[in-house]
Amino acid sequence: MTAVAAPSVASLVQSVDWLAIAPPTIAAVVALVVLVADLFLGERRKALLGWVSVAGLAAAALALLPLLDGDRSTFCLKTLKGEQPACSYTADHFTLVIQFLVLAGALLTALLSITGIKDAKNTPRELPEGEFWFLLLSSAAGAALLPASRDLATLVVALEVASLPAFALVGIKRDDRRSSEAALKFFLSSVTATAVTLLGVSFVYATTGTLHLTRIATALMHVDGQFHTLAQAGVALTLVGFAFKTAAAPFHFWVPDTYVGAPLPVAAYLSVIGKAVGFSGIILVTVVAFPSYADVWGPALAALAALTMTVGNVAALRQQATRAYSAVRLLAWSSVGQAGYLLVPIAAAAYSKDADKAIGSTVAYALMYAAVNLGAFAVAALVARTKPLNRISDYRGLYRSRPLAALVLGFFLLCLAGLPPGIIGLFAKVTVFSAAVDAGLGWLAVVMAVNVVIALYYYLQWTATLFRSAEGEQAVQRIPAPLTAAIGLTAVIGVVLSGAPQMVLRFASTGLF
Fold first, then answer.
1. Short-list 491, 495, 493, 334, CA closest to 422
2. pLDDT in tens, 183-242
3. DSSP-assigned states of every residue in 271-316
4. Taking a C-beta distance cutoff of 8 angstroms, is the pair 340, 481 a contact?
5. Counting runs of H as helices and runs of E as strands, what totals does the chain give?
6. Rounded to whole angstroms, how far apart are CA atoms 229 and 406?
7. Of 333, 338, 426, 431, which sits with the fewest C-beta atoms within 10 Å of its C-beta?
8. Is-cis flag, bond preceding 7, omega within 30?
């Protein structure tokens, strides 16, 4: 009997391309620096940790620039001649766009958080600065890793690295029962979704014998008939964890309580970066790994899209203006409705001959949504400084006390509604609607049109509130520079993109994979 030598690790894995993995690596390294520095800095100097975090996220975003010249891959298995290499990390155009969204969104969240942490100082709900920045940077590193992941193991690890710090961020407000309850709900539901996803991954591995997405795509086309049902179950279950992150119904029930219980910057982070993580994961496992099972995930995602947008918009419609935290709850339910729109092009990719174009519509919509939703949360954080209950009725007369903030918030709400002058919102919705029609999903386009009309009511109602006369004198405080920067940046991005909306679609859909 001839002994067969086991291949060495060096023969299986290529050298690491440090430039390709720089964006998530920088965020992770800065997180460790902040954690260690927190041990040695006195209370008066801990504010520096926030600015170090902002600088680290800016550096991670700038590290994307050298990667624009072409696709780069690393952590690749060596293959036989003529075989396509199977890589665990790929920095292609899709990766770079989502990493830009994640890191830019985390940077804006950090600017909001600097003000929030300062305002909470010397109060019963003071936030621990070192822990907060470490958790935010760690979550951002995981979120930046996920779109580059090209095997199921790395995808799941990146998903959990992005999620676990987020649980702690939601519950970071000390002695706040609402915050603790929100963190517990978020954690328990997320753990359940992750367990279901891991079961799906194990089914996929059992039927294909590989975890790399490109090899799974090839193996699934030749699955034995007796394993066909197992493969279908694996495909469906793998989507559950990512559907949870996108807040797709019926996996959405954690959203309103979590957003209300979390600090406002954390709620903003979850509404944008959490969704980016979920949607990039869904895109990778469906379009890259499971294209031959489009008959399974296509109808499932179409049904999820219809259910999600309907549940989100109807619940947002029912919010009472005088209820405590109604503004945050409305933004939470609105984010659920927006998740439904984002799912439409992914479902359309199952029926379309040009999947890249359909996926480009989702990415373009996500970029628009990220800018305007972060801006809306930034203005909500401004109002919360004088009206901590953050009711929609608290925004009455905002135009009189803070005209620029009212105009900016009105613009963001019109963008989310898809009405002029928020041209970027209108353009994004038309793009998504066209993707559904082109794919032959006329019924889904009709459901979307009805939901857009429903959403008009509550967005316009809130916008009108901004310009009504206030009941009593409005308290006015000086706006901190970081909060001003966050509101200003999102407003500028929204206005510029409304002037040239085609830039987003071109940037988002050019050679994604």
1. 495
2. 998 998 888 888 999 999 999 999 998 999 989 998 888 888 788 889 989 998 998 888
3. IIIIHHHHHHHHHIIIIII-GGGHHHHHHHHHHHHHHHHHHHHHHH
4. no
5. 21, 2
6. 54
7. 426
8. no
